[in-house]
Structure formats: structure tokens, C-alpha cells
Amino acid sequence: MRPNKSRLNQKPKKSPISHSVKLSVEAAIRKIIEELGYECVQVAFVRESEKLILRVLFDLMGGINVRDCEIVSRKVSRMLDEQFDEMITERYTLETSSPGIERPLFTAADYSRFSGHMARLRILPKKTVIGKIIGVDVSGENIIMECDGMEQKFSIADIGRANLVWQNEADKKGEF
After folding, report:
1. Which domain holds residue 45?
2. Per-residue pLDDT tens for 40-82?
3. Distance linking the first and last C-alpha atoms of the chain
4. Residues 25 and 90 in one domain
């Protein structure tokens, strides 16, 4: 029996999709989604269990349903086949979905839009903060949150991951 090589010693696989192609794919998908009247939340190529996934998150005030996902998936799939078939050589799976009730936050505009809502931030390298979003400072580079009754400022550049935190109506009123 051969010993397994440590994953730490293995070099990460180089993406078969160039950065410029990724940017072009993202721009084309964003255009389709916005033309259909939705908000494009995220377009990303991700690798999960050796499988390449093109994940498209989109939203609409009031939420989206399965029919919305079907419409976006068909339009995006058709466009990818027509415009990017030869540029994306690796097999991938297209996923279209809602960002969910605990949607991710990426931009200053996201934090402004969801001011007053609870959010969980993963501050790099390993700090997690949960609090109410107050807003974005005038520079647009920092968000202001209320955490444990105190205002705190966090640089958007230092946030590795952020998402809304779902609260039921009883939690919002402080009733437990």
C-alpha cells in the first residue's frame, strides 16, 4: 500500500479558464440578468470536489422562484454555448439560484442597501463579528456596524466573507 501524498505538498491546479475569459463571462451574464429585470448578486467559477461549477446568484425584490431560475439558466446557457464554447474547455455545471435568506454581501452598495439588518462578517485572518449594519462611511471603504451596543468600523478590504443573518420576528422585537 502506497502512502498518500499530503495535500499540503500538492500544487493547486491551475485554472483552465483565463482571468480575461472569467471577466467576459461575468459581464455577459450580468448583462443578461439585468436585461431580464433581476439583480445579479454573484457570478463565480468555483471548484467543489474536483468539479467545476459556474455559480450564478441573482435576486428580485420579493424573491425569486424556480421559474425565474429556469428562465435565467436557459438564457445564460444558450449565451455560453454561443459565445464561450471554445474558450471554456473544461466541463462545468451551471447553477442558478437565489442568494438565499442569509445572502452574501460583497460591495459597499450591499452594505448600504441592507443597513439596519444583522450581518456576520469574517474578518481576515480569523475573526468573526456579528452585528447590525449601520451603513458605509463617506469613503465607501469601511462599513459601520453596531456590535454589543458599540459602533465599530471595518474595512471592506479586510472582510473575507460576509452575509446577512436571518432573524425571526420574535428576535427582531427582542422577545425570546
Report:
1. 19-97
2. 999 999 999 889 999 999 999 888 999 999 999 999 999 999 9
3. 56
4. yes
CATH code (residue 29): 3.30.300.70
Write phi, then psi, for 22 (nearest 5 degrees).
-60, -45
Q: What pTM does this model have?
A: 0.75
Location of C-alpha cell 471595518: 154
